[in-house]
């Protein structure tokens, strides 16, 4: 079996499953191999009912002592019964699983494993799986992979597919020299790949993860190192020396730049004019005003007769940037053409965009990853502004080059990583920090509340809307899902409409919608036609609607702290007092403690370090900081030791010989 083999050639994966896999970005055997588990099911020793803790998946061994009842709830079918051991009694609930009724017999002793939640004043186990004591004993000690999946595609099928890949593949050669592996106690690569999917025990999982996280970091550092080394060979073929137009625009903005913005702007200008092309990272907390710096850069290169491009991590954000730049240019009567290029454009629209780019009709190009497609030929691309979530190395820079002339690169980051870690990670870029918020900002007021506060929160939002302001509500899920009792966007928007009445315009947004629909909904919100937007985390990064003053985050316990901080950053972007309501049904003290960190500070750096302190470096099964830096497994905070290790190794490796290593793997 070779890596480019299509997944549909595997046993058990037909066209239908193949399509579902493709929707997750899995088309080849290689994609499947690198589709790492998002979590593991572990089968620990059963605990006594009296020792159960809320908010965790746990196992009990107990007798079924209650009557097994099946009822129709508000909208779903519910099965309930009670379990007892010598320490207490526990209610068990199953939603939408009517067949459970036939699997439960009063008087029987069984093992039940499920999520323990606090409902009312009692603990309840939800959606538990049942095992006989013999079945459970066989599973103990194992970690079963849980994959990110989609409706219609079972975890089991993904797992079976990967099993075939691992069993059928020829062993790959390890690109990391044996002595380095030995020195840093890193396991062999084939062992790691098997171990990340099917660890026989926790130790094996740790070993596998350690190696793969190390690889991710090493790859990242090597890419930037390579960029730096190559960069030294390049000349600045796109010198920009005249900043009259961008300075004029800066003077006429409705606000003056903060000192921090001013300092970074001067650094950018100096780079654009210098002998070598720019390779700079701009770091700044949410809402610190990084975008205007990018825009000033784009206008400077356009005024010089060159092209500038900005690559956003999501389509929603690309369109927002596009809209605001077009508006700005019109407002200030600047003559430059802007073009939008994203994956979801029709073929005809894409062709039109390619043509305008190639003929230099467009000086400013805004888009997503589609900007680095072979079909795009730039005429004189002088500046590329990219987001930290896009991997950026020599190859990407060269793909933007025309006749050997490479562009300036400016990377934007809102991840509040401590300077020491930033230097390790981005040490081969020049780093600028926007460490000051605009003066007109009032600190966001926060609160952490239980679901019984929901009605009050709604009333509060209605008051804000009456004042002309807007609100976001964030739910963790798009739609109702079996086995999860988290709020979902579709049902929530309906409930909210019922609760608030027709005077309020409420809409919803999620990542699974068609692009056109997403655009319309976002536009409705930007134009204040929508008062309240119920959304998933698609609005997490960059979305800028300064009139929005309230963000209510449902099931806040389900998000990582850094992610919550990013979400909160969607408000407090203008002159109005803003509010963030973290809502959680959880009564667990650990959850409360985590959320209290956010309640007490709006400073991203403090949050990141407190988060690390709470989770502790050993907690590798905890909530992942999704959405940040885009490492598949690595977490720069938690794995800072591995990051340092990778940095050390990157300095000893002979770059050229290793740069050809299996980069997708590294
Ligand atoms: N110096 C300033 N004074 C007042 N408002 C400003 C200033 N600089 C930027 N703004 C405004 O602040 C808001 C947030 O800025 P921007 O979108 O650039 O933040 P950001 O750093 O990109 O944040 P995020 O990381 O969340 O995307 C925007 O509405 C912008 O117009």
TrEMBL record:
Domain Helicase ATP-binding stretches: 271-434
Homology family: Belongs to the helicase family. RecG subfamily.
Residues of the Helicase C-terminal domain: 457-613
Top-rank EC class of the record's enzyme: isomerase
Reactions that this protein is recorded to catalyse: Couples ATP hydrolysis with the unwinding of duplex DNA by translocating in the 3'-5' direction; ATP + H2O = ADP + phosphate + H(+)
Classification via SUPFAM superfamilies: Nucleic acid-binding proteins, P-loop containing nucleoside triphosphate hydrolases
Family matches, as InterPro entries: ATP-dep_DNA_helicase_RecG (IPR004609), DEAD/DEAH_box_helicase_dom (IPR011545), Helicase_ATP-bd (IPR014001), Helicase_C-like (IPR001650), NA-bd_OB-fold (IPR012340), P-loop_NTPase (IPR027417), RecG/Mfd (IPR047112), RecG_dom3_C (IPR045562)
Function: Plays a critical role in recombination and DNA repair. Helps process Holliday junction intermediates to mature products by catalyzing branch migration. Has replication fork regression activity, unwinds stalled or blocked replication forks to make a HJ that can be resolved. Has a DNA unwinding activity characteristic of a DNA helicase with 3'-5' polarity.
Protein name (record): ATP-dependent DNA helicase RecG
EC number: 5.6.2.4
Pfam families: DEAD, Helicase_C, RecG_dom3_C, RecG_wedge
Keywords: ATP-binding, DNA damage, DNA recombination, DNA repair, DNA-binding, Helicase, Hydrolase, Isomerase, Nucleotide-binding
GO molecular function term, any single one: DNA helicase activity
Lineage of the species this protein comes from: Bacteria, Bacillati, Bacillota, Clostridia, Lachnospirales
